[in-house]
Design brief:
Blueprint lengths: L2 E13 L4 E13 L3 E5 L6 H8 L7 E6 L2 E2 L7 E4 L11 H7 L6 H14 L15 H13 L5 E5 L7 H17 L3 E5 L3 H7 L2 E5 L6 E6 L11 H13 L8
Parallel strand pairs: 3-8, 3-9, 6-7, 7-8
Antiparallel strand pairs: 1-2, 1-4, 4-5, 9-10
Helix pairs in contact: 2-3, 2-4, 3-4, 4-5
């Protein structure tokens, strides 16, 4: 597969009044077109900062980020970010939220696409509902549909399921895999949940403690759907936890 996104020696520091905080140091990796890449690492190591840089929402000090071989330094139509804080407009209905990013198209097409993606994520019949009328899981489905309706090349996801309980998170992850089987997107997801990364990703990048480097790149050679209780998954989980400095038998 061709390279969709390339990161070369990206370095990032924050300068405070009293000291300099080195966050990212010489981060390099590539993401193939259509690949699902998960990024895990210790709390506070700069995972979200790195994702913001990849999405063009934050600047870096040195290095290069490119998409399809061209330098990428600001947010554009290439990618959409789903954050842990949510981005649904509370004053708009589900359908209006989905139509929001489709300005410039005929209204008939906007309605068709909004309803198609509502149905795709399991929200058919709730198009006229406002966000406060939806459950947490339904709200996350609406956010996912709002990102997908504009057909981004790259879907950036920052702890997208962290606010959900374990059962709902599992259900939404299953829905996302079904969608990705129907629609081709490159996905880069930051998560603190190793099991979530194994469930979804083709490869997992493990980041080190700050100043952060790429500590390991781990292939996930398992077909979907993945049975998370299987021995292959548990062995992979233990391997990643060891990279993170955690003994699997105490987790």
């Amino acid at each position: 597969m061709s390279v969709k996104l390339a990161v070369t020696a990206v370095t990032k520091s924050f300068i405070g009044q009293e000291r300099r905080l080195d966050v990212l140091r010489d981060i390099s990796f590539e993401v193939a077109d259509g690949e699902f890449l998960a990024i895990v690492g210790p709390s506070g190591c700069g995972k979200s900062t790195l994702l913001a840089i990849l999405a063009g929402l934050a600047r870096y000090d040195h290095g290069e980020v490119s998409i399809d071989g061209a330098p990428h330094q600001s947010a554009d139509a290439h990618g959409i970010l789903i954050s842990q804080h949510g981005s649904i407009f509370p004053w708009l209905t589900v359908e209006q939220n989905l139509k929001f990013g489709l300005d410039g198209r005929p209204n008939v097409e906007r309605v068709r696409l909004a309803r198609h993606y509502s149905a795709l994520v399991g929200l058919e019949g709730f198009e006229s509902s406002y966000p406060h009328e939806l459950s947490g899981g339904m709200l996350k489905r609406a956010e996912l549909a709002r990102a997908l309706v504009v057909k981004p090349d790259i879907l950036f996801m920052d702890e997208p399921f962290s606010a959900l309980d374990a059962l709902m998170s599992l259900r939404i992850r299953h829905e996302l895999r079904k969608i990705l089987e129907q629609e081709r997107h490159t996905v880069i997801m930051v998560t603190h949940d190793v099991e979530e990364a194994i469930h979804l990703a083709d490869r997992i990048i493990v980041l080190s403690q700050r100043p952060t480097t790429v500590q390991a790149v781990i292939e996930v050679p398992l077909k979907h759907p993945r049975h998370l209780a299987g021995p292959d998954v548990q062995a992979l989980r233990a391997s990643i936890l060891r990279e993170l400095g955690v003994e699997a038998d105490i987790v």
